[in-house]
Amino acid sequence: MMRMAVLQHVKFEGPAAIADWASGRGFALRIFPLYRDATLPSLSDFDMLTVLGGPMSANDDARHGWLGPEIALVRDAMAADKIVLGICLGAQIIAKALGARVYPGSAKEIGWFSVQRVGSHPFFDGLPDSFTAFHWHGETFDLPRGATLLAKSKITKAQAFAVGQRVLGLQFHMEATEESVQALLEGAAHEIGHGAFEQQPSAILAGINQCESLRPLLDTTLARLTGCIGTRKKRSS
Asked: What total number of domains does the chain contain?
């Protein structure tokens, strides 16, 4: 049985569809809520590490005492050849753990915007050349040395990257569900300004049905990341 450890930074950004996917395959999933308990898992506790999003910066280690140890854990997990997935802030943490720079983007990107595939890699091969994803970020990162760029958007050069066959960083929220989008709006709508790439809550809610089209893309990508294509649990009758 694969064991997944999930690092959660704020209450309103949980694993969403990733948890559903893991449950459907009989994975053991344990969430580590760093926002209320700074305890991190040890390398022996998991086969896959999932690092979620959050409103803080990957550079905020002086404000968040757990952030430095978390970045070190991500670095150690990659060195130990664990499967590592980063979402939004999680992708920035992976980049920082690999020595890349994390910094403010040219503009905030919040809402439903398209991403375009770049190059070829098994994680994304077969996915549409362009698809609409959910975004909520103000920072970006340089592509880490040795990483393969997988996707970009109009204002963000690095929307997804892979390191080998076991590490994936996603700047956008491929795991979005209707519930997770509503939770983000409840917890962070005050971050939305009036930039060209900042959709207002009403527009975000109007597009919330697009979560359905993201789900098969997430399923395919996670199956390839974990090597678990075709292992979905059968429903009991």
From this structure: 1
**Residue 31 included in any domain:** yes
237 inside domain = no
Q: Which two tokens stand for residue 8?
A: 């959660």
133: containing domain = 3-226
Query: What's 215's domain CATH number?
Result: 3.40.50.880
Other C-beta atoms within 10 Å of 56: how many?
A: 16
Which amino acid is located at 193 in the chain?
A: G
Between CA 121 and CA 125, with CA 123 as vertex, the angle to 5 degrees is 60
| CA distance linking residue 37 with residue 219, whole number of Å | 30
Report the chain's C-alpha Rg in angstroms.
16
Rounded-to-integer distance, Cα 119 and Cα 127, Å: 12
Q: pLDDT tens-digit profile of 173-230?
A: 999 999 999 999 999 999 999 999 999 999 999 999 999 999 999 999 999 999 964 3
Helix, strand, coil share of the chain (percent; to 5): 30, 25, 45
235 in a domain, yes or no? Answer: no
179 in a domain, yes or no?
yes
Cα 61 to Cα 41, 57, 96, distances in angstroms: 18, 8, 12
